[in-house]
Amino acid sequence: MHRIQQLAADVLGQVESGHTLTEALAQAQRSELTPQERAALQDICYGSLRQLARLRFWLRRLVPKALPEPKLERVLLVALYQLVYTRAADYAIVNEAVTLAERLARGKFKALVNGVLRNFLRQREEMLRLADKDLEAATNHPRWWIKAVQQAYPQEWASVLEWNNSHPPMTLRVNTRKSTVADYLSQLQALGMAATALDASSGIQLEKPVNVRELPGFADGVVSVQDWGAQRAATLLDLQAGQRVLDACAAPGGKTCHMLELADVQLTALDIDPQRLARVAENLQRGGLQASLQAADASQTTGWWDGQPFDRILADVPCSASGVVRRHPDIKWLRRPGDFATLARQQAQMVDTLWGLLASGGKMLYATCSIFPEENQQQLTAFLARHSDAACLEQQQLLPCAHHDGFYYALLAKH
């Protein structure tokens, strides 16, 4: 077990230094691990970051002074998570954490780790009660984030934060060219996979997540994994056969494929990251779909745009990703209040550039996976003030819930 504790502690350290959980976990999983060890490592890493405020709260009370070694703090955080949120035996967790501390510091902090964890076990109920009374520990979000959500959503803020700490649903998008929701539900039922239709066209939610290899037809593009909220993007664009369409920030390609499944359009998929664009190519190949892929910056047209306007543009702009925290719990700890001004400038520059590529009478969908007004409603208001030839046909602010993550959409028409 101490190997998994050490890897998990290393992942937390990578996230603290600014790496994403996805990057850090991928690096840790390069080690030779059994499937069970991989699953345990992922659970501990995701769980520790979901519960990080509570874990830190307890550690501050158990060790009021700063710990002499940063690695030691991460070992204790991981062990505290295991003691409260896993089924592993308490004595095994404590013993392995002590062994790990002994290896990290040549036995120097062995007694400290043992004492801290056993002290927690003696005070467990009191510690749980105290954490529930502390706003940051109870909600497991940074205090500035809590205030921002409270200001934006005075009635819904508590439920938003609660959903952020939950496990996300596994949602499927049925390729309507190859199957129907009703037919695919029947296939799942025959395999003993409980699922519910979210809509009549494409959305299905599984009762329990499964490996994609277990999904019937996945390898042939019959079905894809995509959040139900994200599935709205392609449907909002009102796609028609023969249109020139631009997916401005396409990776990993879920929305790209969905658009091509809905209509026979001439689609250009753009992404600034060539490696992430490769994911788009993989998804297109799996679905038997065709698009022109370009590795380029959507805010700069030089080198990729042929001068011909697009009938539809999906502007899925870079954002805080505050609506998908339950899928990426590191986001709430990596973001800083000052990030939003920087992101807002990038978003404004990108949509202004893309607006110039849209044909008269065309439509552009401004999209984020954010819940914060600075990136959404405020961005829309500023855009409309800058462009007299733009009209907003529809806007939707989706908040995290049982069936989808947080998204924002604003459908714009060009006069």
Task: Characterise this structure.
By secondary structure, the chain is an alpha/beta fold. It has three domains: 2-137, N-utilizing Substance Protein B Homolog, Chain A; 169-226, 2-Layer Sandwich (Alpha-Beta Plaits); 228-414, 3-Layer(aba) Sandwich (Rossmann fold), CATH 3.40.50.150. Helix content is 47%, strand content 15%. The protein is built from 18 helices and eleven strands. It has a seven-stranded mixed β-sheet, with helices on both faces.
Task: Give the low-confidence spans.
Answer: none
Order of helices and strands: HHHHHHHHHHHEHEEEHEHEHEEHHEHEE
By CATH reckoning, the class of the largest domain would read Alpha Beta
Count of the separate structural domains: 3
Major β-sheet profile = 7 strands, mixed
Seen as an oligomer or otherwise, the chain set is single chain
Strand content: 15-25%
> With helices defined by DSSP (H or I, 4 residues minimum), what is the helix count?
18
Quick check: average pLDDT?
96
Strand elements, count: 11
Structural class: alpha/beta
Instruction: Report how far apart the termini are.
Output: 63 Å
What general outline do the C-alpha atoms trace? globular
CATH architecture of the largest domain: 3-Layer(aba) Sandwich
Instruction: Provide the helix percentage.
Output: 40-55%
CATH topology of the largest domain: Rossmann fold
Radius of gyration: 24 Å
